Amino acid sequence: MVFNYIDILFKNHITKIEVINLVDNNKEDLIQDFVSVITSFCARIYSQRISKRKVEKLIKELEMKVKRIVKFNIKISYRLQVY
Fold this sequence. Notes:
By secondary structure, this protein is mostly helical. The protein contains 2 helices and no strands. The radius of gyration is 30 Å and the shape is rod-shaped. The relative contact order is 0.05.
């Protein structure tokens, strides 16, 4: 049904749509589309979860580096005060 609207739109612009996999059953086509959408969202969520973990790891590493720098600076300032 939607294909017909798109086909008319493209014909008005002198463009042809070439159908690669013609589906006889609309339910089958709808199910394929639904599975594709779900797969796409799952991939996006998984990607976001991986990105979140990477960011959390970077934050922890930066916090550790800052702690080391602060600790090192305190040692240096203590040594300077003692002498």
